Amino acid sequence: AGYAKASVALAVFNGSEFLPQQLESLVANLRPGDEIVAVDDVSTDDSLGILERCPWPDIRIIRHDKNQGVFATFETALKAAKHDIAFLCDQDDVWLSGKRDAFVREFEAALLSVARRGG
Q1: Per-residue b or e along 26-38, where b marks 16 or more CB atoms closer than 10 Å to that residue's CB
Q2: What does residue 73 show for φ and ψ, rounded to 5 degrees?
Q3: Closest CA to 41 of 7, 15, 78
Q4: Which of 103, 85, 61, 86 is nearest to 9 (CA)?
Q5: Alpha-carbon span 11 to 13, nearest angstrom
Q6: Which of 19, 8, 80, 27 is nearest to 46 (CA)?
Q7: How many angstroms separate the CA atoms of 35 and 17, rounded?
Q8: Which spans in the chain are helix H?
Q9: What would the pLDDT profile of 13-38 be if each residue is shown by its tens digit?
Q10: What's the gap between Cα 37 and its chain centre?
Q11: DSSP result, 46-75
């Protein structure tokens, strides 16, 4: 358990103050095969550059051509996500160690429970 692939839907707008620490916490938690889908909502700071320097091998960066707001930014990220398990992640979220695995374990347990009940 805990090895299902996950997508992180990351909404970004002028987040250069927070992104380095956030991306570091994501990289420390993610597993091979996981992806980060980062959508930049036309930042005017170095957010895009910080995303481009992220060391995670499966990061896709999408840039809106005009500012659309947080809900549309998350929608863009979720539509682009490849995996069934998705995390919504604001640019100032910092993940505690073990967050990804704990969430995936609970998700898989819930699915197993539903499957056993025939739902």
Answers
A1: bbebbeeebbbbb
A2: -65, -45
A3: 15
A4: 86
A5: 7
A6: 19
A7: 22
A8: 19-29, 47-52, 70-80, 99-117
A9: 999 999 999 999 999 999 999 999 99
A10: 6
A11: SHHHHHHT---SSEEEEE-SS---HHHHHH
SS3 76: helix
Reading the block at residue 84, the tokens are 């069934």
Q: Are 91 and 8 in contact (CB under 8 A)?
A: no
The answer to whether residues 37 and 5 touch, using CB atoms and an 8 Å cutoff, is: no
CA separation for the pair 46, 43 (Å, rounded)? 8
Cα–Cα dist 74/44, whole Å = 19
Report residue 97 as tokens: 């160690």
State how far the Cα of 114 lies from the Cα of 101, in Å rounded to an integer: 20
- Please give the angle made by the CA atoms of 76, 53 and 69, to the nearest 5 degrees: 25
**What pLDDT digit, counting tens, does each position of 51-107 carry?**
999 999 999 999 999 999 999 999 999 999 999 899 999 988 999 999 999 999 888
